[in-house]
Predict the structure.
Amino acid sequence: MSTDYQKAREDLGIRLRELRFTAPEGRLTGTQLAERLGSGWTKVKISKLENGKQTATAEDLRAWADGTGQPDTYEELLARLRGFESHIRSWRRQLASGHRPVQDAVTVEHERTRVLTIWENVLVPGMVQIPEYARHTFNRHADLMRSPRDTEDAVRARIQRQEGLYRPGRKYRIMMWEGALRSLVCPPSVLAAQLHHLSGVIGLDTVELGIVPFTASLKIWPGNSFWVYDERLVVVEDWHAELWIDDADSIATYLRVWQTLSESAVYGADAHRVVADARRVLGEP
């Protein structure tokens, strides 16, 4: 967990403790507040929230404001929570209702964006996935995260977003590691169909698609996947969470990383050859 995130969580905990200490009816102990808040609340939970060991939910904050007799503080508490959670979006929370809400949130950013810059090191990017490939990636992620399966809704949302590839005035700078073409996260027949589709995408006038071959000389290692929306937002995916980064210095760093990796990429006919080599391994002509 990032230092900034943990510090913000600890600061929220300090504020929660202040509210417990300054309840209009007099200072409450942790046990008294837990009893007042009812089912699901314990002295241990009170302690974890106040010491920054657990992230509060919006419902927790509402209960806390009401339970300490200070309901007017709820909006302030919620603003604090949103302030740090907007940057680190845990998969546990995001996937509480399945993958479709996550796709919808990303679609909002896509609609605002004219230039989308993508680096993918392990998967074919969602913007150019076929439905069956997307279906396998959603199912595997849901299994890993033990989240509800709403696969078909999520697939539809992802595929509908691809309409942007055919809209004038947009640009998709997509670059991927050759490993993304070879990762068997789906049956070989599905991967073969995905690679066939990818070959067709290379010719779109809205798409600049590059592939960094295994044999390329690299100036920097192919680290985490990331997406840069214009020059206002970077989304980085990790196992526990997505990081939504909006400070200018960090965005500039990710754009430099992308540019550095692109110096090792191949495009056009050379990219077609790399895709064709991956298809031949799968027994495709």
